[in-house]
């Protein structure tokens, strides 16, 4: 029987790449995000992709989404992102709130809503797209690192609480991935600054590299739980150790 995978934040970047990749793997993919036109374009690429509008920051939207999706085998909590790079001393409360709202509470809302369906599938898989920012802290990363640490902690807690249930809890923590929008959002739309992040780095990861790893993790046999997978480009040995040419 065809399995259903829900991917949030599917309108661009890692989310869109994951929706494409899981559709190729034979999943029926519900591609969810706020920007419906982008989802429609994505769905036109593959008959296995169904577009659905979703705002993970709205309980009403999450409830309506849940009511419209009868079964779920895989949930990829990918919606997230960073806003601003100010030091903690000058960080904007609204930015911190936004990052917590999307990365932590957005993933929480989706998890709470869809968990019963994941469990009743008999082999549910929940994937949390966190970040290396959930494992280390770095200057300017304050609000994003705090939110990603929160999401990482929530993922670990879920795995403990759900042991014995037929559901796997998988964390994928990417390092430097060059996508269309991540750095652009972080620099509030300043394309030049966003581009500089990857300047001279021989090969930052692409969204497809991360989608590849997600596909691998969710297609392991039911008893194999990949707890956490950290993926960085070869040129990034650690957060502050990046090879540039
Ligand atoms: C993105 C990776 O290093 O910019 O989640 O925090 S990093």
Features of this protein?
245 residues, alpha/beta, Rossmann fold, 7-stranded parallel beta sheet, two-stranded antiparallel sheet, binds 2-hydroxyethylsulfonic acid, oxidoreductase, SDR family NAD(P)-dependent oxidoreductase, oxidoreductase activity, acting on the CH-OH group of donors, NAD or NADP as acceptor, NAD(P)-bd_dom_sf
Descriptive notes:
The chain is of the alpha/beta class and 245 residues long. The chain has one domain (4-242): Rossmann fold. Helices cover 42% and strands 18% of the residues. It has 8 helices and 9 strands. Bound molecules: 2-hydroxyethylsulfonic acid. GO terms for molecular function: oxidoreductase activity, acting on the CH-OH group of donors, NAD or NADP as acceptor.
Give me the side-by-side strand order of the main sheet.
3-2-1-4-5-6-7
Radius of gyration, whole Å? 17 Å
Q: Main beta sheet: strand number and arrangement?
A: 7 strands, parallel
CATH architecture: 3-Layer(aba) Sandwich
Shape: globular
Keywords: Oxidoreductase
Pfam families: adh_short (PF00106)
Organism: Herbidospora galbida
Family: Belongs to the short-chain dehydrogenases/reductases (SDR) family.
How would you summarize what this structure contains?
By secondary structure, this protein is α/β, with parallel strands linked by helices.
